[in-house]
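Re: folding output
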Amino acid sequence: MKKDILYSNKAPEPIGPYSQGIFVSWEAQKMLYTSGQVAIDPATGNFISGGIREQTKQVMENLSALLNEAKSDLKNVVKTTVFLKNMNDFAAMNEVYAEYFGDSKPARSTIEVARLPKDALVEIELIAMI
C-alpha cells in the first residue's frame, strides 16, 4: 500500500492542516469509513462539556480509538469531513486537528451546518487505509 500527497501549484494552496488530495495505490487494500463522531466520552457515554477545543480533542480521540480497533492510525487517514456548527470556530478546531495529524495531512472538507447531534459544536468523519 502506498499513500502519497497530491500537490499542484496550479490549484489553491491548502488554507489549513490538510492536503489538496491523497493518491492511494494498493493491492487488495482495505479501507475504513467511519461514521461522524461527536464529543461523547466512551467511558461514561456522556457528552463532554467545554468549547470547540475540548470537543475537537474528544472527537479526535474517538476517531483514533476506531482506527486503533481496525489496526490503523491517523497517518493512514486519506480524507476527513469536518462539520462545524459555527465557522467562527474554524481556527480553534484547526489548531487541535493539526496537533493530531502533524505532517500526515489528509484531504479535508469543512462544512458549516445548522445543527449537529447532541447540539455538538463539531463532528468529524474519516476514510482511512487499513
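--- second protein (sequence, then structure) ---
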Amino acid sequence: MPKPQRLDDIVTEVPLPTYIHQQVIPAYDDQPEHYHLDQNYVVYLPEMKVTLEAGAAHDIRWFTKEQLDTIDVIADLQPILMQLLK
C-alpha cells in the first residue's frame, strides 16, 4: 500500500483514494442541488482501543462482518465494507 511522501516543507503527496463516490445533494433552504465527492481510503490497522476526539466524529468503533447488517452505516458504504470483509 502506498504511503504519503513528503515532497518539501509544505507539500505531501498522498495515495489515491480507494473509492470515490459522487453523491447528489438535494436542494434545501437557500442551497441549490449540488454534488459531494467523497474520497474513501482503506487502511489496515491492528485491533486496538479506539478513542474519540471531541468533535471529530460521532461514532468510531470496531465491528465484524457478521455485525455489519446490524450497525448504522451510510447505505453506499455497506457494499464496500462487505467486499473488504470477505
